[in-house]
Write a structure and sequence with these properties.
This protein has 311 residues and is an alpha+beta fold. The chain contains twelve helices and eight strands. The protein folds into two domains: 79 residues, Arc Repressor Mutant, subunit A, CATH 1.10.10; 203 residues, no CATH class. The strands form two sheets. It has a six-stranded mixed sheet, with helices on both faces.
Length: 311
C-alpha cells in the first residue's frame, strides 16, 4: 500500500482511498481493511490525509495540486475527444486511446495530450507519417493537443516492457475509437494484472465515430497493394535513420526503449520517462525506509529486466 502511494508521489499525484484499493498490488483487500490500514499509517505519520487525498507525510501541497490538475483535465478532455475523432478519420487507424497524464484525469499547465494508436498491419508508418505531417502543417508542429507518440498494429498487440510503469500506462488508457480493437489489446496484455490485480476493466469509454470515412476508405484502397507496402517500408527506414542521427548520443539499449522502431511499432519517448520513473521509485523507496527506519514489504516492479535499475 505504501509503495503504491510512493509510486504516484513521483508524479505529485495523491490518491483517494478507493484509488489506493484499486491500484494496490495486494489483491482482495476489503474496504474496511483499506480504511483501517490508512488510519494506522496516518496515525504513525507515514501518510497524511487532506480533503480525501492521501500522500506521504510532509507533502500536503499535493491535494491542492491534484484538484487544480483535475479541473484542467476536464477542459483538455473535451479537446481530446475532438482530436481523437480527427485521428480516427486518418487512413489505417484502427483504434485511438488517450494515454499519459490525461488518461489519469490530471493535466499540468504545460502538459500534452498523448494518444495511443493501433493501426492496420504493414501500414503503421504510412499512418504515422500522415498524422505527423498534419501536425507539422496544420498545427504548426504543436503537440499540446496532438502528441502522437506511440503506435502499434493489430498483428502485434502485446507490449514487451513488463514493468510497473508500462502496466500503469496501459491500465489507464481511455479508449476513444473502436473499443472492440482495444479489447483485443487488453486481452493481449493480461500481464498487467500482476501489477494491478484489483483494477477494474476500463469503463470510461468514448467510442467516437470517425470523420470523413470516404477519404479514409478511398486512400486505404489506393494503398492496399505494392505502393502502400513500398511507402510504409520507406517511411520506416527514413524515420529510423533520422532518429538514430538525431539521438546518436543515446546508447543502444536506451534508444530501443525510448524510440522502439519496427514495422509493427513506433515509440517516440525522447524524455525516457520509463527508465527515469523506475529509477526514482527505487530511490524513493530507499529514502522512505531510511527516514522511517522500516523495511517495506517487497513487491514486483517488473516481470522482465530490460535495463539495469540504478540507485
Amino acid at each position: 500500500m505504501l509503495r503504491t502511494v510512493i509510486y504516484f508521489d513521483i508524479f505529485n499525484h495523491p490518491l483517494k482511498s478507493t484509488e489506493i484499493q484499486d491500484y494496490c498490488q495486494q489483491s482482495r483487500l476489503r474496504r474496511e481493511e483499506i480504511t483501517g490500514a490508512l488510519h494506522e499509517l496516518c496515525r504513525d505519520n507515514f501518510l497524511e490525509e487532506q480533503e480525501g487525498y492521501y500522500f506521504l507525510s510532509g507533502r500536503n501541497i499535493l491535494a491542492g495540486i491534484r484538484k487544480e490538475r483535475n479541473e484542467r483535465a476536464e477542459a483538455y478532455l473535451k479537446k481530446a475527444k475532438r482530436y481523437s475523432k480527427l485521428i480516427a478519420s486518418f487512413p489505417f487507424v484502427r483504434s485511438v486511446g488517450i494515454s499519459g497524464s490525461l488518461s489519469k484525469g490530471t493535466m499540468d499547465h504545460d502538459g500534452d495530450i498523448d494518444y495511443f494508436i493501433i493501426t492496420e498491419p504493414k501500414r503503421l508508418w504510412v499512418c504515422r507519417t500522415l498524422l505527423v505531417l498534419f501536425k507539422k502543417v496544420f498545427l504548426l508542429n504543436s503537440r499540446k493537443y496532438f502528441c502522437v507518440n506511440y503506435f502499434i498494429d493489430t498483428h502485434e498487440l502485446s507490449i514487451p516492457d513488463l514493468n510497473l510503469f508500462t502496466a500503469t500506462e496501459i491500465v489507464f488508457i481511455k479508449p476513444m475509437y473502436e473499443g472492440a480493437v482495444f479489447e483485443k489489446f487488453v486481452r493481449a496484455n493480461t500481464w498487467v494484472n500482476e501489477f494491478y490485480p484489483n483494477r477494474a476493466e476500463t469503463a470510461d469509454r468514448h467510442d467516437l465515430p470517425s470523420g470523413n470515412r470516404f477519404f479514409k476508405r478511398s486512400f486505404e484502397k489506393i494503398m492496399r497493394g505494392r505502393l502502400g507496402e513500398a511507402l510504409d517500408t520507406f517511411f520506416f527506414r527514413l524515420t529510423l535513420k533520422r532518429w538514430k542521427r538525431k539521438f546518436r548520443n543515446v546508447d543502444e539499449s536506451q534508444f530501443d526503449l525510448n524510440f522502439r522502431s519496427r514495422r509493427n511499432v513506433s515509440k517516440h519517448h525522447p524524455q525516457g520517462f520509463q527508465f527515469k520513473v523506475m529509477n526514482q521509485l527505487a530511490e524513493r523507496v530507499f529514502e522512505f525506509e531510511q527516514k522511517h527506519r522500516v523495511v517495506l514489504q517487497k513487491s514486483e516492479w517488473r516481470l522482465d529486466n530490460p535495463v539495469e535499475m540504478q540507485g
